[in-house]
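User: Can you predict the 3D structure for this chain?
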Amino acid sequence: MNNFEIIKECPIFENFTIDEIMEIFSVVSFYEKQYKKNDIILAEDTKIEYFGIITNGKIAVSNFDYFGNRNILNVFEKGDSFGEALVSLEMQIPHEVISLTNSSVIWIKYKSLCKSQNYQKILNNFLTIISTKNLILNKKLHILSKRTTREKILEYLSNQKKLLSLDSNFEINLNRNEMADYLALDRSNLSRELGKLKKEGIIDFEKNKFKLL
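Assistant: Here is the predicted structure, written as structure tokens:
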């Protein structure tokens, strides 16, 4: 395997050296798998023993309502991990994981991590990651609690600006369809309200690049 530099960027291996990561992969069970755009990586109610690290592409964790509308819970990109909480608790996943682009994932068997001499250090990072992701989900619930389309959009963009940029310019990792699914909005309503906000001088944007004015 030659993805150690990418893996080193994953929060699970924060503060690990390349040599320490190589030691881990010399003793754990793992495999790498490629996915095409729109492939289902994990189906709802699947029980998993492996968690994933994305080495290329972009994936979404999502579920569907009674009418078949997709709700994106979170999006992960190269260097991110997913499935840590569920695999450590030995739970079935309550949602679906889909590949938004052509992607590749390294799957690591959770129980095999105990073979590594760095096991405790990994567990400490696991706890930090799970706590961080809980905070992200809480922020999303706060966004969805807003009553209007405009309030949801502005709350989301404000959060993204704080996360991604030191100034007013930033680029989100969602296209319009994905953004609509993340905010639980109709695509046409989202586009219409974005247009109004731009016309009123509240925001500016071009494709995925935004600016709060």
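The chain is about 40% helix and 25% strand. The first strand starts at residue 30 and ends at 35.
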